[in-house]
Design a protein that fits this description.
It is a single chain. With 258 residues, the chain is mainly alpha-helical. It has 13 helices and two strands, in the order αααααβαβααααααα. The chain has helices spanning 5-22, 26-37, 39-44, 60-81, 91-100, 120-126, 141-151, 158-165, 176-179, 192-216, 220-225, 237-242, 249-256, and strands at 114-116, 130-132. The longest helix is centred in the C-terminal third of the chain and has 25 residues, at 192-216. The chain is globular, with a radius of gyration of 19 Å. The N and C termini lie close together (10 Å). Bound molecules: fe (ii) ion. Fe (ii) ion binds next to helix 4 and helix 10.
Length: 258
């Protein structure tokens, strides 16, 4: 699927408004400054480089993050109703972790992680509209996200560090040291990481269903037709207005196909 330019702009406004509403203290401005600096990149990023994953289209990242924030707040209510000790984390920590959980996907200060796929065969046969940028040295998504925050002066709490680090749950074996402990004193002292993981899982699953169930229920040919960003109508003057500040040539090409 694709988002319209107006939807991308609206999702960005919601993303910033979540920071305005939930983040406090000196770090609120630091976080706003960070996202304003990288607005163009973050606003248009996909959430993944392959259609097989989720939200692999321009604006997919912010659309995903906003969903995770919503699911996170709803999951927290469910946990509270069932007796979770809510004194072990704050709502600000809950939302901060959700807003920044996948930040490492943006790449580093100078280079985007996901750039438009240049291999026509891979675009058409494998449905890869994006590819990894080899300029970016390897790091796990949580490690890079936390590095980007600290290198831009955005302070985070121990709870937030733990939640962002382990948001993939046991899908990432590196989290076993936190999530597979048998000694009570080694288990997390807060349910925040589990709540964020559930919210992320829920959001990604829903995004997968939205992209793939209609295709899996249709013909294979139909599925291939929907694989790439090709053959979409040309951008309208409204779209050009909503995203008029875009400087990156690669992103402009992608948006022309929206
Ligand atoms: Fe995520």
């Amino acid at each position: 699927m694709n988002l319209t330019a107006e939807q991308i702009q609206g999702n960005w406004d919601t993303f910033i408004s979540n920071i305005e509403t939930h983040i406090t203290g000196d770090r609120k401005q630091a976080l706003l400054d960070f996202y304003n600096k990288y607005q163009e990149r973050v606003m248009l990023m996909p959430a993944a480089h392959k259609k097989e994953y989720h939200n692999s289209f321009p604006g997919g990242y912010v659309e995903h993050v906003n969903r995770v924030v919503r699911c996170d707040l709803k999951q927290a209510k469910l946990w509270e109703e069932e007796g979770c000790d809510m004194s072990t984390f704050t709502t600000e920590e809950l939302v901060f972790s959700a807003i920044n959980h996948d930040l490492g996907k943006m790449g580093d200060e100078n280079n985007e992680s996901y750039i438009p796929q240049t291999d026509k065969w891979r675009r058409e046969k494998l449905g890869e509209d994006y590819m990894f940028n080899k300029q970016v040295p390897f790091s796990s998504v949580p490690d890079r996200g936390l590095f980007m925050l600290q290198s831009h002066g955005v302070i985070y709490t121990f709870n937030e560090m733990l939640a962002i680090q382990t948001h993939d749950g046991l899908y990432d074996a590196a989290n076993e040291k936190y999530l597979k402990a048998y000694m009570p004193e080694q288990k997390p002292r807060t349910s925040l990481p589990f709540i964020l993981h559930q919210a992320d899982l829920m959001a990604a699953r829903i995004e997968f269903e939205r992209e793939w169930l209609p295709k899996l229920n249709g013909s294979l040919e139909k599925q291939k037709e929907n694989f790439t960003l090709n053959d979409k109508p040309k951008s309208t003057s409204k779209q050009q207005k909503a995203l008029g500040s875009i400087k990156s040539e690669g992103l402009k090409n992608l948006l022309d196909n929206l």
